[in-house]
Amino acid sequence: MSARDWIDKDFYRELGVSSDASDAEVKKAYRKLARELHPDANPGNADAEARFKSVSEAYGVVGDPEKRKQYDEARSMFGGGLRGGFGGGSGFDFGDAFGGQQGGFTAGGGGLGDLFGNLFNRAKSGGGTTARPRRGADVETDVRLDFVEAVRGATVPLRLSSPSTCDTCHGSGARPGSSPKTCVTCGGVGLVSRSQGAFAFSEPCRDCRGTGRIIDDPCPDCAGEGVNTKTRTLTVRIPAGVEDEQRIRLAGQGEPGRSGAPAGDLYVRVHVTPHPVFGRSGNDLTLKVPVSYTELALGTTLTVPTLDGVVSLNVAPGTASGRVLRVRGKGVQRRDGQSGHLLVTLQVTVPADLDDDARTALEAYAKATATHDPRPELTALVQKARQS
Predict the structure, then answer these.
(1) Which DSSP helix (H) or strand (E) runs through 67?
(2) Is 208 annotated to bind ligand?
(3) Residue 206: helix, strand or coil by DSSP?
(4) Which regions form coiled coils (predicted)?
């Protein structure tokens, strides 16, 4: 494979995924294609064998986080510029760029040969990265709480179906009583190297499919994968004060790692059902209380609910509609042990119907207060507008 061939090659397209696909999506696509195209499943099919080789080569790069990062950076930097540089009269010396010896391009102090040498894992660099231990993937699930549970905290059971370490082979992939063998083709590296001119290229080993191990007698429960899908139940403590759409991280409860690597994390996304009466603003609870005009004008004592009982509030005579009264310590408990407040908003209600006695009383009140202007600023503007 020439350097230009590599620049033009789209490993993501080979796997049938987009360039922003997650690691899990890349892995899933590779496994599906590898099963379909493996030479054992297609004896004598040269096209399937060539396609399997291309897919394995692609996964050997984008299936490894470090190599994928280098590949993406290389495509971003040189995907367009180098295409025009080969045989196009540009005078670009690709050998200098890769050799990094005579003023060739450098990246971070090293020649491009360093970057591409790492990507293709030159034979002189030693062991490949495919067989390295890999941290397990993170898992996310959802849980719904009612409003009070979210404020006070709750313990909830979660039932999850996710990949877990196989209990039969304990992750080795081999039938109990047997063990995987080191692949003699790649020496356990998972990659085989070949040279073409000044370039050394690596590709996943066909015999072990890039794992560095040969399993002669696969585990019957996981088919040699070392993991299988299991349903498990976890008891999760949701802390007090959790908010809607907040994620809670449970370390080490995600997918198991490979080759002794740690497991991923479990993220629990919380959805909170709104309360019919209470609202929330940060660590404060909110409550809207309807009141009559006379209660605000003459003053009164209101009894209002909280999440753990009732409280009495004194409303002073002449209180305006929309006034917010604060009840200390009746909100959401904070991490420092203190609690937010309950904010009570007073809202005047207007009766839709009046009986004769009420109407007579209101008309008498209106007559008694006829000289009082409740909106002097607006009245002044109206008068000024009429005079102009």
Answers:
(1) helix 65-78
(2) yes
(3) coil
(4) none
Instruction: Give the model confidence (pLDDT) of 222-246 as tens digits.
Output: 888 787 777 888 889 999 999 999 9
Q: How far is residue 49's CA from residue 55's CA, in Å, rounded to a whole number?
A: 10
Half-sphere exposure of 131 (CA within 13 A, CB side): 23
Q: Tell whether residue 263 is among the known ligand binding residues.
A: no
Largest CA distance in the chain: 107
Three-state SS at 60: helix
Consult the annotation and say whether 205 binds a ligand.
yes
Distance of alpha carbon 268 from alpha carbon 266, whole angstroms: 6
Residue 200's pLDDT is what?
Answer: 66
334: DSSP letter? P
Please indicate if the annotation marks 183 as binding a ligand.
yes
**Please, are residues 275 and 147 in contact by the beta-carbon 8 Å criterion?**
yes
Confirm or deny that 86 is annotated as ligand binding: no
Q: What local confidence, expressed as pLDDT, does residue 7 receive?
A: 54
- pLDDT, residue 113, reads 43
Cα end-to-end distance, the chain, whole Å = 88
Are 1 and 196 in contact, with CB atoms under 8 Å apart? yes
Q: Which residue do the tokens 């033009």 mark?
A: 8
In the numeric block, the tokens 């042990």 are attached to 337
Per the CB < 8 A criterion, the answer to whether 272 and 296 are in contact is no
pLDDT computed for residue 369 by the predictor: 87
pLDDT band at 198 (very low <50, low <70, confident <90, very high): low
Length in residues, the chain? 388
Closest CA to 118 of 127, 103, 109, 2: 127
pLDDT in tens, 53-65: 888 888 888 888 8
